[in-house]
Structures are given as C-alpha cells and as structure tokens.
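> example.struct
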C-alpha cells in the first residue's frame, strides 16, 4: 500500500511539474505585464520597488493577481513551517508571510502568478483532481494510522489487564503464606508441631512470599514499560497530526 501511494505522489508531482513547464512556456509576458499602476504615485512607487508589476497594481487586478496569490503562498509556507513544530502558531504565520513576501522581489511571485493564469481552464481541472486525490489519500492514511493506533492501544490494555491479574494472583499467594505462618506459629505454641519442623515450614513459606514479591515487582515494572510505550506512541501520533 505504501509503495502504491508513493507512486501516486510521484505521478502527481510529475504532472504538476509538466503543467508548470507548459504554462511557463505559454505565458505571454508582454500581455500580462502591459499596463500602468492606478493608485497614488507614492503607493505605486513603493509596490513597484517591492517587486509587484505596475500592470497588476490596478483596482481590477490587485486582488486576484497580488493579494490572493500572496495569501495562497503564505498558506503553503505555513503548512511546511508548522510541520517543523519549532515555533508557536503566531510566529509561524509571521514567518510564512515574510517568506512569501520575499518571493516578490526575487521574481518568483510574478512567475508563479503568470503560470497560474496561463494554465487556468482545463489544466485547473487537472490540478483540482490531483490535489483532491492527494487530500483524500492523506485523509485515508490518517484514518488508517488512527485505526492502527487504536488496535495497538487495545492490545496494550489487554496485556496490562493480564499482567494485573497475575499481580493479583501473587498477592493472594502472599496472603495465604502469611496465614499459614500464623497457623504454624500457633501450632508450635500449642505443642502440636515440633519447633524444628515448624521453623522449616515457616522458612518455606517465607521463601514463597519472597518469590511472590519478586514476581509482583516484575509485573509492576512490565506494566510501567507498557504504559510508557503507549505514551510515546500517543506523542508520535500527536506530532504527525500537527
């Protein structure tokens, strides 16, 4: 299943690269960069110095060619940065915006938007289905991972219950041996059992108590190990979900 998903991802990436290459080669740069800024001179000079084409600084193009793409690139970078889980959400948003804004003076932003408009239409449909498949596959893998995690936790709980029953059994054995020791002492005091025979019987029961206590200690350590493993798995799942 994993190999199949890797193949699907590789194919989708190749399709996206092919669409981008075709779009880049078919962009009419003169047409999309032809025009003048319609805002006040100080605003135009500032935005053009930053790297935005003057033709896009119009009331008609500003939203769709500048604000929306910049917002989309910010979301993409936020998705990558948030996966690193180094900073808080607010810092991740600020860093994502700074990184996306830095694509403007380098010209990457203009190329991205130009190719995006060049491939709109039938290629947008292909992109939509590619992204939809990617989203559904990631959701499916997430569901499968949760089910697998649930099965693991269920098995761990069964092990803990089984070990707890063993711990209870040895606890009862200790209680029984302590009762036997009390009975032996009473019989020794009453003269029903010779002191040397009674002492030998008591030593045997004490050895049994010692063995049971060791088994209980081992059971408790094993339960602790299982719970620690369960905690580690839960933390790993949380990291993959964030």
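> example.seq
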């Amino acid at each position: 299943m994993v190999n199949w998903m890797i193949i699907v991802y590789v194919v989708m990436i190749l399709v996206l690269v092919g669409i981008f290459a075709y779009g880049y080669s078919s962009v009419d740069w003169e047409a999309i960069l032809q025009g003048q800024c319609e805002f006040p001179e100080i605003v135009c000079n500032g935005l053009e110095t930053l790297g935005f084409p003057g033709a896009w600084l119009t009331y008609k193009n500003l939203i769709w060619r500048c604000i929306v793409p910049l917002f989309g690139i910010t979301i993409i970078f936020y998705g990558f940065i948030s996966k690193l889980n180094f900073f808080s959400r607010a810092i991740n948003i600020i860093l994502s915006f700074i990184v996306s804004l830095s694509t403007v003076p380098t010209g990457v932003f203009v190329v991205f938007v130009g190719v995006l408009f060049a491939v709109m239409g039938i290629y947008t449909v292909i992109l939509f289905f590619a992204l939809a498949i990617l989203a559904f596959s990631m959701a499916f893998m997430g569901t499968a991972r949760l089910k697998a995690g649930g099965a693991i936790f269920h098995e761990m709980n069964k092990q803990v219950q089984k070990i707890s029953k063993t711990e209870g059994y040895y606890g009862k054995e200790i209680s029984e041996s302590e009762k036997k020791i009390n009975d032996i002492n009473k019989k020794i005091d009453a003269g029903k059992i010779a002191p040397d025979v009674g002492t030998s019987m008591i030593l045997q029961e004490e050895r049994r108590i010692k063995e049971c206590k060791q088994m209980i200690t081992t059971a408790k350590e094993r339960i602790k190990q299982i719970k620690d493993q369960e905690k580690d798995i839960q933390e790993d799942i949380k990291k993959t979900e964030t």
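> remarks
The chain is about 85% helix and 0% strand.
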